[in-house]
Specification:
about 500 residues; alpha+beta; Chitinase A, domain 3; 5 domains; six-stranded antiparallel β-sheet; 10 helices; 24 strands; about 15% helix; about 30% strand; rod-shaped
Length: about 500
């Protein structure tokens, strides 16, 4: 048979062999080697075989059993590893990805997906595989390892595959299942942690910041936001992410942790992407850090308000307050308490982010409130490097400690009483008909010190006075004359129709 390059294939005990060989093969194991001596009466007798075997010849056979099966055999399945958790097993019409080594019964390797470094991907139970493999894969868990032994009539039969597999060969597949889904599958959501307090859940059009670990079903990590040390930031429900993630991120709370399992038709499909193979089920373990909607405004919650609360903060007022600043997940960003001093601003002057200007409106001294500021009213997409992440929602716990009323809009200085009719002469102390910046500054300072006038609080005195002086110095020569000097209510009202 070696000379012919093919095994001898035959049923035993059915008269297809000489009587001696029929007896000699009984009880043999695959890979067993026997030396068989057969007398003429159990071989070809007194006639022999013309030209080949003489009459009354004793025959000697050196036999090596390569394969063995019976027409009543079925597929044999031997599981040698099974994961503790097995939420789902292979059913008819499922799509699976698996690795295998394919051998004959004698251990000879004829094929291996490992050698090709890619899984074998196929539907199960609908005729895409040989019948024995269709049967052998049913009931498997992802991560399970089993040996599937298939008789030839459930494999490639009498003809073989015309390549590596000869006719009538039993096949042994050592299989590990890596992936499993059904084309009818939707996403699967497993809640791992839901905060007790969940005032709002994400909706279509919201902008989320979240961390994730992305793995395949067998646990192979393909991506992680944690390794990049920054959240993944995106709109949800609008096609900015794969369809399964778009759906899986809806209805989450800030601080929630959930597992989202996404079949390939809602992930990266048959082609895959990067480290993600084609037709792969994806598993994302996500942690929602915060979310907001571009239509959101500032949210204000009053935690304490004094009983006597008549004077309310307004634009132009000078405020002193303490705050703790944090992210929505509770991460502390900054605190005036740790610095041991208040934060001081002129409300509405652009000294703080727009959301804080809004959050400090209509507050009274002693009031405490929590102000939640969406990023478009805070530090935007860029954030503050090393301090505030991009697109972060900010939470300020505020206590207003002091309020100095500001001046009417457009004024940097006002009189507390009647204005002197000889105002220019009073400022022009040397009576030379010209007022210099130094004279002007000394006069304004004296009016403030005596309580006759008031400067806008919270601004630098020298800058205010220089600005006032420049407005009066209409020809820009550094001197103000009586003709140039006018009070604000004496200014000519010019019309600007073009504006």
């Amino acid at each position: 048979s070696y000379d012919r390059g093919s095994t001898f294939n035959v049923f035993v005990g059915k008269g297809q062999l000489i009587a001696g060989m029929d007896k000699a093969l009984v009880g043999m194991c695959v890979n067993e080697r026997r030396f068989v001596k057969i007398p003429p009466k159990l071989a070809y007798g007194s006639e022999g075989v013309s030209g080949v075997i003489p009459p009354n010849a004793v025959l000697h056979f050196d036999v090596l059993l390569i394969d063995l099966w019976n027409s009543e055999d079925e597929v044999q399945v031997q599981t040698y590893f099974k994961p503790e958790k097995c939420p789902r097993t292979v059913q008819v019409s499922d799509f699976v990805r698996y690795h295998y080594n394919g051998t004959f019964l004698d251990g000879t390797l004829f094929d291996s997906s490992h050698n090709r470094m890619r899984t074998y991907d196929t539907y199960v139970g609908i005729g895409w595989l040989i019948p024995g493999m269709d049967q052998g894969l049913l009931g498997m868990c992802v991560g399970e390892k089993r040996i599937i032994t298939i008789p030839p009539f459930l494999a490639y039969g009498e003809e073989g595959d015309g390549k590596e597999i000869p006719g009538q060969a039993s096949l042994v597949f050592d299989v590990v299942l890596l992936d499993l889904h059904n084309p009818k599958d939707g996403i699967t959501i497993e809640n791992q942690h839901v905060p007790e307090s969940c005032e709002r859940r994400s909706q279509t059009g919201d902008f989320l910041r979240y961390h994730y670990n992305g793995t395949l079903l067998d646990g192979t990590l393909f991506d992680s936001s944690y390794s990049r040390n920054r959240t993944y930031d995106t709109y949800v429900g609008k096609g900015y992410v794969i369809a399964g993630m778009d759906e899986g991120l809806l209805g989450v709370c800030t601080g929630e942790k959930r597992r989202i399992i996404i079949p390939p038709h809602l992930g990266y499909g048959e082609e895959g992407r990067g480290k993600i193979p084609g037709s792969a089920v994806l598993v994302f373990d996500i942690h929602v850090v915060d979310f907001h909607n571009p239509a959101d405004s500032v949210s204000i919650t009053v935690n304490y308000k004094p009983s006597n609360c008549t004077v309310l903060s307004k634009k132009g007022d000078y405020l002193k307050y303490h705050y703790n600043a944090s992210l929505l997940d509770g991460t502390l960003l900054d605190s005036t308490h740790s610095l041991g001093k208040t934060y001081n601003i002129v409300l509405g002057s652009g000294q703080v982010v727009v959301g804080m200007d809004m959050g400090l409106q209509d507050m009274c001294v002693g009031e405490r409130r929590t102000v939640v500021i969406p990023p478009h009213l805070g530090y935007g997409e860029d954030g503050v490097e090393g301090e505030v992440p991009g697109s972060a929602v900010l939470v300020f716990d505020i206590e207003l400690l002091e309020l100095v009323s500001g001046l009417p809009e457009g004024y940097m200085f006002v009189w507390n009483g009647e204005v002197s009719p000889n105002l220019f002469e009073e400022i022009d102390q040397n009576h030379d008909g010209e007022v210099l910046l130094e004279e002007f500054s000394e006069y304004i300072q004296a009016q403030v010190d005596s309580g006759k006038g008031k400067l806008a609080p919270g601004f630098d005195f020298e800058k205010i006075v220089k600005n006032m002086f420049t407005n009066q110095d209409r020809d820009g020569n550094g001197k103000v004359t009586a003709e140039e000097f006018k009070l604000k209510d004496q200014e000519a009202k010019e019309e600007h129709d073009e504006l």
